[in-house]
Amino acid sequence: MSPISRPRGTEDLLPDRLAAMARATEVGMRVASSFGYRQIATPIFEATELFTRGVGDTTDVVRREMYTFPDRSGRSLTLRPESTAPVLRAFGESSLRELPPPVRLSYAGPMFRYDRPGRGRYRQFHQFGVEAVGDGGAELDAEVIAVAWDWLSELGLGGISLQLNSIGDAQCRPAYRQALLDHFAPHLAQLPELDRARLGRNPLRILDSKEPGTEELMATAPRTLDFLCEDCRDAVERVQSALRAYHIPFELNPRLVRGLDYYVRTTFEVWHEDLLGAQNALFGGGRYDGLSELLGYPAAPGVGFAAGLERVVMLAPPGPSLAPPQVVVCSAQPTAVPLAIDLAQKLRRDGLTVLSDVGRRSLKGKMRAAERSGAGAVGLLGDEEVKAQRVTLRRLSTGEQLTVRPEEVSLQVREWEQATDGGEVHS
Ligand code: HAM
Hints:
binds histidyl-adenosine monophosphate; five-stranded mixed sheet; 16 strands; eight-stranded mixed sheet
């Protein structure tokens, strides 16, 4: 029988990688919490309509990338491809909407998109993100960017650039859309098929085009920033001035459009120099003031970002590696097993990290494994020790050996650790 392997585009998070992702999430949650963001978790599956309405049914995410299935009662469900629409649904449906705005929320978890798997691109990936809901003030846009920026700096991630744009709102976007259509109309025949389709469905998406034929025409295309109404112009100025106050450098990029339909005004992405091509964003976000109404709830303006954790971990310098066990407790004979288990448990209660090695293999094999584990000390229990109710404790870095009572082991291990940290031993 052929072995069963994991589905394409998914990953088993092995301990080292999982630890790195957990650390990145933990640092993110800590930074977000220092800005007043509190964690929320929404279901991994939702009613399909949440995304067709919220994210928009002309987007690639909804048209081609959703994992959608009927449940046993025939309801159409979708594994969440993103979390902004779910968080807004949860906000609209709960007592959160009674809190004084903005309500600051953070989240992390798996998302699902039937994307073409590649470097930093998965079908199940993980996001860390925040949403600030209930306030339309442009300074809040800068605040969510600051959360992300501080997070990446704390992870030691350099080589990044913040791309900022405003795509206008219901007032000024129609005129911009028309100007784009007018610009490309005389050249339709010259456009690649993909971009002709984009123009028909959602003209702004053409700004994102990487097709060579379109790129040339893009150079002279109208720019979103030149079409903003007064309110949108004021907002984009306020975002920039708040970003300066946060000392966050940015580049105005009038070609930055995002792949999801709910954005108004501010959109942003952070790019990394090592992530090239279409998938160069470490994180993206923006303002989505009409989303709540689209989902059938009262108005709740908001802004947020989400970052791909796989991409962040791939580019951030590795964090501290996992600490080795402090003690390995070994039994030399089967008769010593109960005492060895007992000792290991006692040491764990004392706060130490302990491996217990009480199987039937030879003591020599156990000692070799203890050395390989990088442990500081080994507690040995054989017939002699059981009779005398003592433990033979060996310090692995020096070979020093003592016989002590079980209740003295923790103290002795800690003393040796302090001596090592104090520079007495250089291993
Ligand atoms: P998004 O740009 O679709 O935005 O995704 C955000 C980030 O998720 C991307 O920048 C990327 O790092 C990561 N990502 C997306 N697709 C994949 C994939 N297939 N594999 C690995 N990583 C991926 C959103 O999801 C919005 N909800 C962000 C937002 C929050 N806007 C406002 N609030």
